[in-house]
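Known limitations

Files may contain more than one protein. Parsers should not assume a single record per file. Below, a two-record file is shown to illustrate correct handling: read the sequence, read the C-alpha cell line, then continue until end of file.
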Amino acid sequence: MDAAAPDRITIFDTTLRDGEQAPGFSLRHEAKLRFARTLDELGVDVIEAGFPIASEDDFAAVRDVAREVRRPAIAALARSVPKDIDRAGEALDGAARPRMHVFIATSDLHLSRKLGMTREQALEAAVIGVERARRFADDIEFSAEDATRSDPDFLSEMVAAVVRAGATTVNLPDTVGYSVPEEIRAMFRAVRQRLPEGRPVILSAHCHNDLGLAVANSLAAIEGGARQIECTVNGIGERAGNASLEEFAMALRTRPDRLPFTTGVQTLVLYAASQLLTELTGEAVQANKAIVGRNAFAHEAGIHQDGLLKDRRTYEIMRAEDVGRPSATLVLGKHSGRHALKARCEALKITLSRLELDELYRAMIGRAEIRKVVEDCDLLELVEEMRRPGAHPAPAPASPSPAPSRRSRWESPVTIEEPGYGFGV
C-alpha cells in the first residue's frame, strides 16, 4: 500500500475483526461479506476481515472478502507465530491488495503474565514473524499489543527492529483504553523520532474506549504523527469498544480549522453502514450515540426547536444529510414549544388559529406526559377532538385590561415568546 500523504489519514476498519469479537456481535462469513461490500462503498482504505486461525468460518470469511472486494487492502490478523501467519497468508491468497497483520505484546505485564516471555524473546519472535509474513505480501503491518503500557525505550527498540525486518505500517494500540490524549500524542512523537532513517513507515493508532477516550486519543495520535487510524462502525469492539469510525471522520470534516487532515470516507454512507451493522448483529445503537444514534439529530427542548427553526446552526454543528440521514427531527414531547408544534402542523397541512394552537399545545403537552413522544397520528387525533362540535366551552367574559405597570429594572426589555421547557446549556 502506498504511503499516505502527510495530511491524508488512512482509515483501517476492523469492524469485521475486533468489532465482532464483542460478546453478541459475532457475524457469520456471509454477513461479513455483505458488510465488507458496504465498507468498500464507505471508502475505507483497509478492511481487516478477520483472524483466520480462529475458526474455519473466520478463515472462509477472510478468503471470500479477499477474493470479492478489490479496491481496499484486505488485512488478516495473525499472532507472531508460524501457524497463524501461514493460515492468514493462505486466506489472503487471491486478494488484489493483501495485508498481513502480525502482532505480539510489548508491555512487561503481558509478556510476563500472559506470554511467559522475556523482552528479548518477544523481539526475536516479532522480527521472525514479520520476515515470515513477507512471504505472502509486501504490505506488512506490525502491532505492538499494549503499547501504551510498554516501556518507551523497549517499544522504540521493537518498532525499529520490525521496520528493518520489513514492516510498512506499525500500530501502537491502546489495547485496554488506559491512556489519555496527552500520553498518546507524546508516545507517537517519541516513537516517530526514533524510526530508522531511510525506511518509510506509517504509524497507526488503535484506541479502545474503556475510559470513553478512544476518538479523542485517535485525534491526539494524528497530532503526534500517526497517519492511520484503526476504528469500527458504531464503535463496536472488545469491552467498551473501539474508536468510532463515524465520530472520527466527522470530527475531521467538522473541525478542519483545528484538524487539517482528510480521509477517503464517503460520509453520506455512514448512516446506512450503521443501520446495516445493527441489522446484521441484532444489536441496537444507543439512542444518544454521536452521528448515528436515534437522537443525534433530534430536538425536543423548546428553546432548541425555536432556534433550529430560525437557523439550524444555532443547535447543530453538522447536517444530518451529510451523514446520509433524514434531516433533523423536531420531536414533540413535554419539553417542546409552540413553534415546533406549529411547524409540525404546517407540515401536516393543518391550519390553526392562534386560539386553536394554544388549545392544541395544551392537549399535546398532556398527551406527552403519558406517551413521552407525540407522533403525527396523535396530533391528527387531538385536532379532530378539538374541532368536534361541542368540544369548546363558551368563552368567559373579557376582563378589563390592567393599567400598564412600570417595568422593573430586573425585567428584560426583550419580549421572549414561550418556547417550552428545556435549556440551551
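...continuing to the second record:
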Amino acid sequence: MYITTMAPAATLVASWLTMFLVGTELFVLSPLLPMLAADYRVSPTRAGWCVTAFSLTYMAAAPLLGYLADRVGRRQVLTCSLLVFGAANLLTATAPNLLWLIGARTLAGAAAAGVSPSIYALVAAAAPQGRRAAWLAFSVSGLLVSLAIGAAVGAEVGAALGWAWVFVALAIVSLIFARFNRRIWPCEPRRADAPTTPSHLLRRAVLLRRLMPTVMWSTSLYGVYTYLGAGLTSVAFSPGQVARAILCYGCGAIVGALIGGRLADRVGTKFVAGASFAGLCSGFLLLRLALSCGAFIELALGLSSALAQLFFPAQQAGLARDFPERAGTALAWNNSALFLGIALGSLIGGRAAAVGGFDAILAISAVIALAGCLINGIVVPVAGEPELQPRNLSLSSASASPRQPLERTRS
C-alpha cells in the first residue's frame, strides 16, 4: 500500500471518470455501427469487425501491458496509454476507409488494455485498510454507468452531429485525463525483474488457476446478455420495453458491484464470489420462470444482474491481495480472462439459441454458473494456503505459525 498526496476522494473520482471514459468507448460502437456501415458502404456485419478487433487486441495486450506497468510504474503506463487512446480516437474519426478504421480500433484496444488494469492496480494499492474491494467496486461502477449513460449520450451526439464527432470528443477527453491522472497518482519506483525461481513459477501457475472463475463467470453472464435483446423481443417486448429492461439490468449491475465491494471487505472475497455464482444460477432460473409467466421480468432481470456483479470486485480484490507485487499483471490477466469468457459466452449462447431459443441459453448459462461456483470453491485459496507460499517450508515452521484466514488478512 502507498499513500497518495491527494485526498482519497480525488483518486476515486479520477479512477471512476477514467473507467467511465473507457466504458463509453467500448459500448458506444454498438449504437453507432449502422452509421459507420452506411458511411463506408458495407454491411453492419463487416462494420462489426472493428468491435472484434478492439476486443481481441485488448485481450492479447492486457497481460503484456500489466507486466510493463509492474516493471516501469503504473502511473507511467496509464498516462502513456491514455495519450495513445486519444490518438487512436482521432484516427478513428478521420478513417478514410474500413481498413483504416479497423486499424484505429486495434490501436484503441491496445491502449485501453493499458488503462483499465493500471487503474485497478493503482486503486487497490491506494485503498485504505479494509476498503480495497469497496474502492475497486466504485471504480468498476464507472464502467457500468457508461453502459447506460455514456453510450446513450454518444449515440445522441452521433445522430445529431455525425459519428466522427463522438470520437473527436473522446480523444479530447482522453488527453485531458492523461494529464489529470498524472497529477493525481504518485510516481512509483522502477522494479527489477523477478528471478525465475520455483516459487515464482508456482505463483504464475496459481494465478492461471485463479482466473478460471472469471472465465466461467463472464461466459455465463455474457452468454445471456449478448442475446438478451433478441430474447425479450421473442416474448413480444416492444423496443421501448426492451430499453426499460436494459435500464433495469444496468441499474442492477451498478448496485450489485457497489454492494459486492462492501461485502467482500466484510465477509471475504471467496465467500462473496461463490455467493455471486450461486445467485447468478438462481437468477437465470428465476428469469426463465418470469419469461414463461410473462410477469416480473424486469425485476428478475435486475436481480440477476445485481447478483452477478457481486463477483467482479471480490475477484479483483482477492487477486490484488494475493499478488501485491504483481497486481498490475494479475488484474490485466483477469481482464483478458473476462474478454475470453465474453467470446465463449457469445459462442455458446448462439449455439444454444439455435437449438432451443432464449430458454436454452438461460438453462445452459445457469449450469455454467453452478460449475463456476464449484470451481471457485476449489481454486481460490484461503489465508495461509500453502500453494501461495514456497513449498520448501519445513513442517516445523509451518506448525509454528498457525494459519490465519486470508480473507481477514489485510495487505
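Parsers that stop after the first record will miss the second one. For reference, the second record is described as follows. The chain has two domains: 10-181, 196-411.
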